[in-house]
Amino acid sequence: MEQHLTVLRSEAVSALMGPSDGCYVDGTFGRGGHSRLILESLGESGLLMGIDKDPRACESGVALMAEDRRFQMRKGSFAELNELLECAGWRDGVDGVLLDLGVSSPQLDEAERGFSFLRDGDLDMRMDTESGQSAAQWLAEAEASDIARVLKVYGEERFAKRIARAIVEARAEQPITRTLQLAKIVAEANPSWEKHKHPATRAFQAIRIYINNELGDLERLLEKVVGCLRPGGRLVVISFHSLEDRIVKRFMRRQAQGESVPSYLPVTDDQVGRTMRLIGKAVKPSEQEVAANPRARSAVMRVAEKLGER
């Protein structure tokens, strides 16, 4: 099994857990780092569902199912939470939902998956390798304007138009099918390299997010998660870049504040649409964790709890 250092493992599970006999969802199972610790915290009657798009992650989940009857693995996106809970017969809601967003260490480390600009492999980038369009397929057909928009919106890339033109010019000479091939095109088109950051970082991030509809899935999950949580149930989200964290932060703040009304009006939480309360401040990895796992350095964890008594 690939080595995977789960970021904010104990902090996330500690924030998530309520009753030991409750039902919980690990919406980004990965290789089970968070799930295994959740199971250690559950009682005999507690239940945990793992969800992941990645077939290899699902293989790890199936293995865990064989070890622990309290766990079940579901292949799919956490955006399909309602449907997955319905299929499992969990119609009364859950006590906690955990999301560890972004790409996992095994996905980055497997060159053939196409996520890394440091290792040569097929330019795939799909988390679910069994469906959808690969990065190579998209780049072969997309207009320069569409490529530039993706780089700008999802990668916050300053030189999006310049890099997009370079990609279109390069593909006219030969198909772009390898990760290092794309990384070289982007690096040569980028006139201002950031210190301590590979010039293809933002482009690879942007294309990956687009190919996997990562922000769209996150927004779909947030639209329905309050309805899936039991009173007192918690949502714990670990983000790794500003776009994700901004969406999560705004959602949690909006649910905690409700609609803006004059302070002198006698209104209830329900009347102003207040559904959650914020739990603590944003949590970041310790210096020790970042030293042991540099990929943790950009992680931010936020926690919100559904209003009402458990």
Structure description:
- The protein has 310 residues and is an alpha/beta fold.
- The chain has two domains: 9-106 and 214-306, Rossmann fold (3-Layer(aba) Sandwich); 129-209, Orthogonal Bundle (DNA polymerase, domain 1).
- Helix content is 45%, strand content 14%.
- It is built from 14 helices and seven strands.
- It has helices at residues 9-16, 33-41, 55-67, 81-88, 105-109, 135-141, 144-155, 160-173, 179-189, 201-211, 214-228, 242-257, 269-272, 287-292, and strands at residues 23-26, 47-52, 71-75, 94-100, 229-239, 276-278, 300-306.
- It has a seven-stranded mixed β-sheet, sandwiched between helices.
- Helix 8 packs across helix 9.
- The longest helix has 16 residues, at 242-257.
- The two termini are 38 Å apart.
Mean pLDDT: 92
Strand order of the largest sheet: 3-2-1-4-5-7-6
- CATH architecture label name of the largest domain: 3-Layer(aba) Sandwich
Number of domains: 2
Q: Biggest sheet: strands, sense, closure?
A: 7 strands, mixed
Number of distinct beta strands = 7
What is the CATH topology descriptor of the largest domain? Rossmann fold
Element pattern in H and E: HEHEHEHEHHHHHHHEHHEHE
Distance between the termini: 38 Å
Shape descriptor reads globular
Estimated share of beta-strand residues: 5-15%
Oligomer: single chain
**Total count of helical runs of at least 4 residues:** 14
Radius of gyration: 21 Å
- How would you classify the helix and strand content by structural class? alpha/beta
Main CATH class of the largest domain:
Alpha Beta
CATH superfamily of the largest domain: Vaccinia Virus protein VP39
Low-confidence stretches: none
What percentage of residues falls in helices of 4 or more residues? Answer: 40-55%
